[in-house]
Specification:
By secondary structure, the protein is of the alpha/beta class. The protein contains 10 helices and 7 strands. The mean pLDDT is 91. Bound molecules: nicotinamide-adenine-dinucleotide.
């Protein structure tokens, strides 16, 4: 039997990468999925692939838009049991010359956006008698702010650390209502966002993978592997797991890449 049979899920960031793979996997595992993304055409393409799924253009950094979209998605699906949030925007690499508007944008997309999405979904999950809130967090950047060049993303790291705390606080406040809150910490994953970020630093993704070598024992992840982490946490097989972030990194944390970065 499909693992998410009868579940209703909203995936924010469904237009690309990890969010898109998660939307596909949840759909294949029996969930009714609504897709949201800043990129309307990308969200529409994923939604069309899932059989005309409800689809929304959304800037997760906009509090009112998030509340409107979550409400519309839940109404379109007949309620809400699961919400996954995986936005990834441009990242900056400096402290000294970081313009306030860039800092605020990065922080709002990743951290404030997670909070807004959780806030908006909680009443619907409560109505459903419980559910799961999930967010993609980045362990290396959320746990450690500065690594070897080019992996020094101050605003991104700060936002990812905040995401972790939003996940934990939500678990503490809402577990008694049957609402679980978890994250997935992906290792380096071959997505449009990751490839673009490397290329902006003059690094080709294959070169990067070769350079890290045995530090990533299983190589770079494909987004489908990260989506499997979300599937597990969304499922009833994770019924006693909350306030927790699952590392899906193919052994990078344990290997040389991990030692280099941590
Ligand atoms: N790819 C990796 O190596 C990696 C590693 C660790 C963590 N992550 C995290 O995983 C998540 C997904 O990353 P990805 O690699 O799949 O990225 P991606 O760029 O391939 O996909 C991200 C999607 O989010 C959408 N998006 C961007 N800004 C948005 C906004 N303001 N509102 C709504 N949607 C928005 C984009 O349009 C895109 O469709 C991110 O949170 C990222 O930080 C990725």
């Amino acid at each position: 039997m499909a693992i998410l049979n009868g579940k209703r899920a909203l995936v924010i960031g469904a237009g690309s990468g990890i969010g898109q793979a998660t939307a596909r996997l949840f759909h294949n595992e029996g969930a009714r999925v609504a897709c949201a993304d800043l990129n309307r055409a990308a969200a529409q393409a994923t939604a069309a692939e899932l059989g005309a799924a409800p689809c929304f253009q959304l800037d997760i950094a906009d509090h009112q838009q998030v509340h409107r979209t979550v409400d519309s998605a839940a109404k379109a699906l007949g309620g809400l049991d699961l919400m996954v949030s995986t936005p990834f925007g441009p990242v900056s690499f400096v402290i000294e010359n970081l313009p306030p508007e860039q800092w605020q944008r990065e922080f709002n997309v990743l951290a404030s956006g997670t909070l807004y999405a959780f806030q908006a979904a909680i009443p619907w999950l409560r109505k459903a008698g419980g559910g799961v809130l999930l967010s993609a967090t980045a362990s290396l950047f959320g746990d450690y702010g500065a690594h070897t060049h080019p992996a020094i993303f101050p605003a991104y790291s700060a936002a990812k650390a905040a995401q972790e705390m939003i996940i934990k606080a939500t678990a503490m406040l809402h577990s008694r209502e049957g609402i679980r809150s978890c994250g997935v910490q992906p290792g380096f994953t071959r997505t449009e966002g990751a490839v673009r970020t490397l290329e902006e630093n003059g690094i080709q993704v294959d070169q990067f993978e070769a350079r890290i070598g045995e530090g990533m024992p299983m190589g770079m992840a494909m987004p489908e592997a990260v989506a499997e982490g979300f599937l597990f946490l969304a499922s009833d097989y994770a019924s006693y797991i909350t306030g927790y972030t699952l590392l899906v990194d193919g052994g990078s944390y344990a290997g040389r890449f991990g030692r280099m970065l941590y």
